[in-house]
Amino acid sequence: MTGPESSGALERRRVRVARGFSRPRGGSRTFNTAPHPFQRRSSTPWLYLAPALVVLGGLLAYPIYQLGLISLFHYTQAQVSGGEPTTFEGFGNYAELFRDEQFWQVLLATVVFAAACVVCTLAVGCALAVLLTRVRAVPRLALMLAALGAWATPAITGSTVWLFLFDADFGPVNRVLGLGDHSWTYGRFSAFFLVLLEVVWCSFPFVMVTVYAGIRAVPSEVLEAASLDGASQWRIWRSVLAPMLRPILVVVTIQSVIWDFKVFTQIYVMTNGGGIAGQNLVLNVYAYQQAFASSQYSLGAAIGVVMLLILLAVTLVYLRLLRRQGEEL
Amino acid sequence: MSLVSRDGKPRVNPVRRFVRRPGRLAAESAALLIAAVVAFPLYWMVLSAFKPAGEIESTEPRPWTLAPTLDSFRRVFGQQEFGRYFLNSVVVAVAVVIASALIAFLAATAVTRFRFRLRTTLLIMFLVAQMVPVEALTIPLFFVMRDFGQLNTLWSLILPHIAFSLPFAIWMLRGFVKAVPEALEEAAYIDGASRARFLWQILFPLVLPGLVATSVFSFISTWNDFLFAKSFIISDISQSTLPMALLVFYKPDEPDWGGVMAASTVMTIPVLVFFVLVQRRLVSGLGGAVKD
Lengths: 329, 292
Prior knowledge:
The structure holds two protein chains of two kinds. By secondary structure, chain A is mainly alpha-helical.
């Protein structure tokens, strides 16, 4: 980002002046986002954005609006089939939800489960990324390919395969561990643990590959200096790599939080729709079950809105972190 | 950032150079062991798909089989309209990948190469849109699809998936579009290229690696989806997709494990092939997108 760009910026400024451009918005921006001759007609970006905005407006924004709307009405099977008129309930559905003990239980389970998944995924992913940098090509290729395989596996097949591995009767894991016909999906915590294993298995590769790519970009002098000063591997990670990789770590952490908070397929398939008496429900599955299994569309929508708000809060934290790093959008 | 050095130069691993020798042996055995553990579920899946029924439903499972058979695959392919399901899945995934890549490319160009009112607001909206839990929107989308008469059609799967893969695709492509030097753009205009020509003949090929990395995500999320297929394809099963075919074998109380594993194998292979094909670009693409 030095020589050619800055001369390009100069030239660009000249062109701009020649064509009588006004000052760019946000004048303190760096040169590589400065306007260029292309920007003559301000309608052009909107032309490019039009398809995206149409699709997102119709299939994302409008459904979100509908979701909010449904959550304010009394909406069950009778209303869907047109048998009864829809009645406005205001925040009645939310009041009902917040009074419901199961909702709080599910919310707590979701937060704890997502947190555990995120921590495990990041720990495994980062540790393996560091490991990748310490081995020669063959073990590295083996680990990379295995990880890509896990990454590529569809959630639904991953779920059934892990279920089969831990099957009480025919699974190899119980044989190896000598657990007899112990059922992993019967107990609440062991079922959650099993799902956690699957989630970590299929999501650590993203962290590993990304962090590995980041480490490769760290100048070798820095690491050499650290090791000459006698720093241990852990010390190098904590004091050199982690701070340098901070932007990448923020991205993978937030991405993991979002993915793991929304886990649906694994819970739905592995615990057969939320476990015995709903003991393994997470918010996402809970909303779906309320809506489509119990036909309580408005309650399901209200849960959806709550999830949306929680994830919005996470997003705001993310944006603040990005801002603090001085990254420009 | 790929497994193999792209420019052909021997790559000196910066971290490795300072590692003391005895540590490396331990690290390499650990790496191989972990690779085996990570790959084991996939191995078991393929193995079980080829095992005869008696060996699958055995209380002494062995990690090999001496009598591989295609019985389970026959059951899967013999299932009514399995080929149709497979084709539907492919059609939906390909349509989503192409459409979202093109739309996201245009949008990413708009938000990185232009400055206009609401630009930052839009970017934040794209970021926020990624957080939207797809599953929660099943309820309103169901009504939208019903109102437009699209239930039981492939459109009810294609359109929502395009919408849900767009925000992430735009967000990721930003870095790639930004990385193309503006001097190139100026040179193109000085040489008299039209805006469309620059867009499709210069910018598009340069951003292609990024598009590939992005398409991995839209392909996977579309290929894997079973919630929309389950919710929107309710009566016309000829419009159903692969995950539904898999679930036919998976009955919680009495699963046909051989069938499930064979169907899982059939469903996983296209994704694996896709991944292996784009692996290099994916790794470098991710590095680029994150470093930005």
